[in-house]
UniProtKB/TrEMBL annotation:
PROSITE patterns: ABC_TRANSPORTER_1, ABC_TRANSPORTER_2
Name of the featured protein: ATP-binding cassette domain-containing protein
Top-level taxon in the UniProt lineage: Bacteria
Domain ABC transporter: start-end pairs: 11-231
Source species: Aquibium pacificus
Keyword Transferase (UniProt): no
Family label: Belongs to the ABC transporter superfamily.
Key word Transport present: yes
Residue ranges the record marks as coiled coil: none
One protein family per Pfam: ABC_tran
Keywords, sorted A to Z: ATP-binding, Nucleotide-binding, Transport
Length: 232
């Protein structure tokens, strides 16, 4: 396999700052990180250690200021907006707050995950969304509005929305924080299955012990530095 196929993420000498002038503060220091395709990696660390900053940089949601970030074989530092948009389409995002549209059904919410791809015929989008909801065990809830779903079910709809475009990389920020033990286990099980079946890579920020024990690798950030990197 070519290097870019095996390593979904290659970070070298990544620094990041917030603010300007006297308020300028360094959030990441000289980060190096390689993540292989199909792996399930957990990123941990105290509040303010830089976890969200890493996730948003890798997700092409903020610009790389200094250092190199190669994502799916493409350099993000200095990348053009069209390149970043094309890369974002290959990512799936899952956040703690599920961010579902309250006026749309589960099916319609999942179909929103295909919108960025554009031009997909409605009939195919419905079929793909129905399939994705089946994957997260919600085949019998496709026509429900979020208000009529439990917290765990809503988060599973968000997972289906993130997965519908068959992303190469899933970036998740505390996806199980609002879930009961069974739903959390289901979400983790699903992401791990996708890793082995489709080669989907997952990088997940969490403090949830239920997830840690199932991770392939655990990275710990402290004050903007990786202080521990454990492979299970
Ligand atoms: N938009 C911003 N403007 C200024 N400083 C910021 C901004 N975002 C983050 N920071 C600072 O950068 C550092 C890292 O923040 P980050 O949100 O990445 O940490 P985190 O590990 O995700 O924390 P938490 O677990 O609380 O979400 C912190 O010192 C934070 O105050």
């Amino acid at each position: 396999m070519a290097m870019e196929d095996r390593n979904v993420i290659e970070v070298r000498g990544l620094n990041h700052w917030f603010g300007t002038g006297d308020a300028r503060k360094q959030a990441l220091y000289d980060l190096d990180l390689t993540i292989e395709a199909g792996s399930f990696t957990v990123l941990m660390g105290p509040s303010g250690s830089g976890k969200t900053t890493v996730l948003t940089l890798l997700g092409c949601l903020r610009s790389v200021q200094d250092g190199s970030v190669r994502l799916l074989g493409q350099e993000l530092n200095g990348a053009s907006e069209p390149t970043l948009i094309a890369l974002r389409r290959r990512l799936g995002f899952i956040f703690q707050a599920h961010n579902l549209h309250e006026s749309l059904t589960a099916l319609q919410n999942v179909m929103m995950g295909l919108q960025v791809h554009g031009g997909i015929p409605h009939r195919l989008a419905v079929r793909a969304a129905t399939h994705a909801l089946g994957l997260v065990g919600l085949s019998d809830r496709v026509d429900y509005l979020p208000a009529n779903l439990s917290g765990g079910q809503k988060q599973r709809v968000a997972v289906a929305r993130a997965l519908i475009g068959n992303p190469a990389l899933v970036l998740a920020d505390e996806p199980t924080a609002a879930l009961d033990a069974d739903s959390a286990a289901e979400v983790v099980g699903l992401l791990k299955r996708l890793g082995s079946v489709r080669g989907t890579t997952t990088l997940l920020v969490t403090h949830d012990n239920r997830i840690l024990e199932r991770a392939d690798r655990i990275l710990v950030l402290e004050d903007g530095r990786i202080v521990s990197d454990t492979i299970a």
